[in-house]
Amino acid sequence: MRPFLKWAGGKSQLLKAFEARLPEPIKESKYIPRYLEPFVGGGAMFFYLKTHYQIEQAYLFDINPDLIICYKVLQKNHQELITILAELASTFMAKDQDDRKSFYYQIRDRFNQQRMNLDFLNYNNTWIERAGYLIFLNKTCYNGLFRLNQKGEFNVPYGHHKKPRFYDADNLKKINKALQNTELICGDFTEAEKFVTKQSFVYFDPPYRPLSSTANFTTYSRYGFSDFDQKRLAAFYKKLDRKGAYLMLSNSDPKNENVDDDFFDSLYQGYKIERIPARRYINRDASKRGAINELIIRNY
Ligand SMILES: C[S@@+](CC[C@H](N)C(=O)[O-])C[C@H]1O[C@@H](n2cnc3c(N)ncnc32)[C@H](O)[C@@H]1O
To answer: Is ligand 1 within 6 A of the CB of residue 136?
Structure first.
């Protein structure tokens, strides 16, 4: 199983490093009684673990309602979603370059208009169409970004991909199955608290702290995450630690930019902090795509 979206901060290249650092009982038994991911995004870690480990119960959270709509549609109506995606993909592919671009903007407009009258709280058929639009836009827009303007409109430009890979029906079927004993919750990461029990495994992948003041390219605009939120998260981490759960958190290392920046070292003092090499893909400046470290912070 692989992520069905390209998502900023996707963790595919770090999965082996995370796996090597799973709690010992999970590594030995290949069994996870309760898995929680408060910032699921593209879900690279969840899909990897679900493929290689037996997860009894999973709880996935994200503050982005359109993303959670996609997951819920995959959980309930993946066949209809595949039909919609097949139609969008074949209409797009039958066009020449210029027409593809205007088709992209047509779908982007529809997606933005749909938002005005959408019932975001109760599952309904419009969600299926909306999930199709989001996946289509994600595969054809610039760099797979998800960015909203102040009015809440998706405003990423067309991406000029030669051969977009819209979806893989087999993968979507597997995802549908994987989501059957999974709770999908749209909200702030703190919503996870009531589901965390002793022995739960929680993996946190919060939005990166921008490497520099100009590096706002990877931020999630209206779902932005400030230093205040990072501090809120560290307090939450400590709270869940006291519950006896296993906690793993990853983040970009601010020391990549400034060796004296001890922001996370002081926030997570007393926990196991490791720095591992990573490559960053979504960065406008090619020179910043080189070797940088990722932080992994564990309470075990
Ligand atoms: C770095 S991404 C996660 C990447 C993901 N693990 C992957 O592999 O693709 C962070 C996610 O956190 C979400 N987010 C931002 N603020 C949040 C908050 N306060 N509570 C929950 N989720 C939040 C964003 O919508 C985004 O999807």
So the answer is: no
